[in-house]
Amino acid sequence: MSTHTPNQITLTKPDDMHLHVRNGEALKSVINHTARQFARAIIMPNLAPPITQVQQAQAYQQEILDALDDDKGFTALMTLYLTDNTSPRTIQQAKESGTIHALKLYPAGATTNSDAGVSNIKNIYATLESMQETGIPLLIHGEVTDPDIDIFDREKIFIDRVLEPLIKDFPELKIVLEHITTRDAVSFIQESPAHIVATITAHHLLINRNAIFRGGIHPHHYCLPVLKRESHRKALVKAATSGNPKFFLGTDSAPHAQHAKESACGCAGMYTAFNAMELYSEVFDNAGALDKLEDFASTFGATFYGLPKNQQQIRLSKQTWTVPEYLPYGSNMIVPFRAGQNCRWQLLHNHDS
Ligand code: DOR
Ligand code: ZN
């Protein structure tokens, strides 16, 4: 149980159920930010080339472990990237490995490093059948990619055209609709069976699409799925703070070097790993729902993935601090979410329960 006063909250160390940490020097720059905030994270497989095989995921897991500053007790929960060629045999190997906790579906062309993604969901039906049998979850980037569909409608159209038929064809398949951004997705998840759930990012809870355009173009507020209008943000806050176990924390923190964001064709992604729990605390505090934060951040995701409760705890205090303008990112810099601005909550330290 979390304890909280108006100015302090202590909770079970949370899990980030959707995280990009890259590899190489970039990984070394970001992973310790996450390990300070979270006990475990579901690691996205969209590297170049993507992580499609169990052995690759195991090597990547070792690289993550090696990049940790010290033994913070952090666990990287690995995933595989689905392609048109992922076979049912790979699903069996994933299940037997104990390392792989889910498979990620990127519709080809939907986002960063998704070119090798699935071009037509029907191409992987035998593989999905095998996933349904083994009980391994399918994680979905839920956006259609047709150029004639407006970018702000991609999630809703995906639900109507792809997700609904998929659920009819695989009624027992465990599904996470990742980083939901619309009231339509909230309603869809609420009305679906218990094994169909969603993650919600801090940035989609905190800002709406005006943030991309306020007084000029703001590349650090560009991510995918793109931010939506205020009424959608409000629906997400309501869902996240409602205490419904179908909605849980996944930051989708997606680091890109400053120059790759501040470019004529800027990359999609916001870097929230540095101050993630501070950001979520602010959302829950603003909603008068700090008592619901621990379940959203530390319980519901773990329960869905069949993981034990973490033993460590974290403590957050209501005290204002200023987020740095830049952080090192390999030989480059990265601009964290809220750079140069204040956070109203601060992560104090980890301590054992
Ligand atoms: O904004 C995003 N960035 N959305 C994604 O789906 C991928 C991610 C990335 O890997 O950069
Ligand atoms: Zn992502």
Structural summary, described in words:
With 353 residues, the chain is of the alpha/beta class. It is built from twelve helices and 16 strands. The chain has one domain (14-311): TIM Barrel. Helix content is 34%, strand content 19%. Strands 3-4-5-6-7-8-9-10 form an eight-stranded parallel sheet, sandwiched between helices. Strand 4 (40-43), helix 2 and strand 5 form a beta-alpha-beta unit. Helix 3 runs parallel beside helix 4 (125-134).
CATH superfamily: Metal-dependent hydrolases
Helix content: 25-40%
What quaternary form is this? Answer: single chain
Small-molecule binders here are: (4S)-2,6-dioxohexahydropyrimidine-4-carboxylic acid, zinc ion
SS class: alpha/beta
N-to-C series of helices and strands:
EEEHEHEHEHEHEHEHHHEHHHEEEEEE
How is the CATH topology named? Answer: TIM Barrel
Provide the gyration radius in Å: 19 Å
